[in-house]
Amino acid sequence: MKLVTFEVPTPVGPFERLGALTAQGLVDLNFAYAALRSQRLADVFVPAEMLAFLDGGEDSLDGARQALTSIVRKGPKTAGPRGQRIVYKENEVKLLPPLKPRALRDFFAYEDHALQGAKRRREVLAPEWYAQPVYYKGNPRELYGPGAVIPWPSYTRRLDFELEIACVVGKKGRDLSPAQAGAHIAGYTIFNDLSARDIQKNEMVCRMGPAKGKDFGNVLGPYLLTADELKKDEQLAMSVWVNGKRWSSGTTRDRYWSFAEMLSHVSQSEWVYPGDVLGSGTYFKGCGLDMDRWLKPGDRLELKVEKLGVLRSIVGAPKAQKQIKYDR
Fold first, then answer.
1. Phi, psi at 282, each rounded to 5°
2. Residues 125-168: tens digit of each pLDDT
3. What are the φ and ψ backbone dihedral angles of 143, each rounded to 5 degrees?
4. What pLDDT score was predicted for residue 46?
5. CB 194 within 8 A of CB 216
6. Phi and psi (nearest 5°) for 262?
7. What is the DSSP letter of 233?
8. 111 CB burial (10 A radius; 0-12, 13-18, 19+)
9. Are 241 and 310 in contact (CB under 8 A)?
10. pTM of the entire structure?
11. Exposed, middle or buried, 324 (CB in 10 Å: 0-12/13-18/19+)?
12. Is-contact 222 190, C-beta < 8 A?
């Protein structure tokens, strides 16, 4: 399934709902299940909010599948128990980030990208990189969805993107082996890890962060593809397009660390929860830094991943540059 969070207008203001993209259109899963069973059961088994849906695990996934099968059988004009609309055209609603992560961790899983970073710093890639997957903790609150204008913070002159794939945890777990961790992944989505490269550089020189170099914006979407839609270790093509021109291409084949290994590492001596998001890091040339090519205001950015769709964004205008002064 291609799961989405979408915003629909109502007489009392916009509402956020859980849906699935299908050949018939965008299906409101909660109302579709209510039409099949009852609204009371729908609110339990197929909630209208993504995190609650993920908390429901296999019961929620099974309910969603039943709801979609029913809509295919009855047709797209089927209404909810109180006459609610169930099926929309995609251009009739606004797609939001598929979920609001409970936690966000971003890894550094592509060897060529890591090697290139070390080369820029005139260093040798630390052998510890090969000993365990490493990550930083991101800010899950500054979130943008498909088609959004991405922010240009006032403190940076080097705004950058990173084309990544993110996995979404679907089951609570702790001290998972890599073999166990794979079964805890609910699905995958495209992740654009925005970066203020000049600020990030300053932070890393001080052996801290990244913090302000990253925390201003993360982009997810356009949908969450459930894990059953991908084969184990399936290789996916990726590409970056800016203003209709391809800047780079890559493949998940080049990833050194698997998502199962990354999730296993995170889970050691701590709990992971449904709705936690783990980014893979980008491939070599999956960001402007690797190519010395930089975004400009008004650029139209398209991050494409086979089976995961296209995550489109528009680069916003810089805010007035300012330097915070600290009294010492």
1. -100, 160
2. 999 999 999 999 999 999 999 999 999 999 999 999 999 999 99
3. -125, 140
4. 98
5. yes
6. -65, -45
7. T
8. middle
9. no
10. 0.96
11. exposed
12. yes
Q: Which two tokens stand for residue 226?
A: 């459930």
Per-residue pLDDT tens for 213-241? 999 999 999 999 999 999 988 999 999 99
DSSP state string for 164-223: EEEEEE-S-EES--HHHHGGGEEEEEEEEE-EEHHHHHHHHHTT---STTTTT-EEEEEE
CA distances from 148 to 44, 54, 143, 164, 222 (A): 31, 25, 10, 17, 11
Q: Is 75 left (phi over 0), alpha (psi -120 to 50) or beta?
A: left
Tokens of 215: 């925390």
Long-range contacts from 13-17, C-beta under 8 angstroms, 24+ separation: 14/94, 16/48, 16/49, 16/96, 17/48
Are the CB atoms for 174 and 270 separated by under 8 Å?
A: yes
140's tokens: 């899950």
**In this structure, what token pair is assigned to residue 141?**
């609150």
Query: Does the structure show a pLDDT above 90 at 10?
Result: no
Distance of CA 216 to the CA centre of its chain: 15
First and final C-alpha spacing in the chain: 56
